[in-house]
Amino acid sequence: MASQSKPQDAIALLKEEHREVLDMFEQFEKARDDDRKARLAREICTALTIHAMLEEEIFYPSFRGKIDDDLLDEAYVEHDGAKVLIAEIDAATPEADYFDAKVKVLGEQIEHHIKEEEKPGEGIFYEARQSGVDLEAMGQQMQTRKEELQARFATGPLPAPEVRTFAGEPNIEISEEIETPGSEPMETRPGAPR
Fold first, then answer.
1. How many angstroms separate the first and last alpha carbons of the chain?
2. pLDDT at position 167
3. Are the C-beta atoms of 21 and 51 separated by less than 8 Å?
4. What is the enclosing helix (H) or strand (E) of 121?
5. How many domains does the chain have?
6. Cβ(46)–Cβ(121) under 8 Å?
7. Which residues of 117-131 are buried (b: 16+ CB within 10 A; e: fewer)?
8. Mind listing the pLDDT tens digit for each residue in 142-162?
9. Which 3 state secondary structure label does DSSP give 67?
10. In this predicted structure, what is the pLDDT of residue 168?
11. Cβ-count burial of 67 within 10 angstroms (0-12 exposed, 13-18 middle, 19+ buried)?
């Protein structure tokens, strides 16, 4: 995501980043060349990683207790879901199974997240504007941090995802079947795992 030279408040900075990443997803959808897809996927992953870090390090904590905490909780969960896909996309190549599908689903998740944050009259950004927090100073702080992260990730790897809302691996096996009333016990079915 491009750096801004003129100062802007925190919400304006985040909204500008939203528009930029949505444009990247649109470019990815139109791309046919694997090299272009790989470059765009890397740009998307980097931009979203930086964006999430700005929100989680600076923006969201500044509003905890000042706006509806449920909105912030939902945003953290949405970020965690995106981080998992970002890590998988960043570690893969366009030839990998499900690569395009993962980028598409990530784009859909991000579109939803943006709508929630920018929702007029009730989203995080609306409530943040009403809070009295100095958004200009926060915007400057976020811009400085953004430039640091852009320099760091321009040549280095993206960080491993840190998720705060996911508890880990589910305690079920994918191959498990749930027995329903009237069905044969799983062990007696032909081809059932033993």
1. 52
2. 73
3. yes
4. none
5. 1
6. no
7. beeeeebbbbbbeee
8. 999 999 999 999 988 999 888
9. strand
10. 61
11. buried
Residue 5 belongs to some domain of the structure: no
At which residue do the structure tokens 């809302």 appear?
Answer: 165
Q: Is there a contact between 45 and 90 (Cβ–Cβ < 8 Å)?
A: yes
C-beta neighbour count of 135 within 10 angstroms? 21
Q: What is the CATH number of the domain that holds 148?
A: 1.20.120.520
Alpha-carbon gap, residue 136 to 133, rounded angstroms: 9
Confidence (pTM): 0.83
Is residue 65 in some structural domain? yes
**Mean pLDDT, all residues of the chain:** 88
Instruction: Say if residue 1's pLDDT is above 90.
Output: no
49: amino acid identity, one letter: T
pLDDT at 156: 84
Residue 42 included in any domain: yes
In a domain, 165, yes or no: no
Distance CA(144)–CA(162), nearest Å, equals 22
Distance CA 108, CA 88 (A): 16
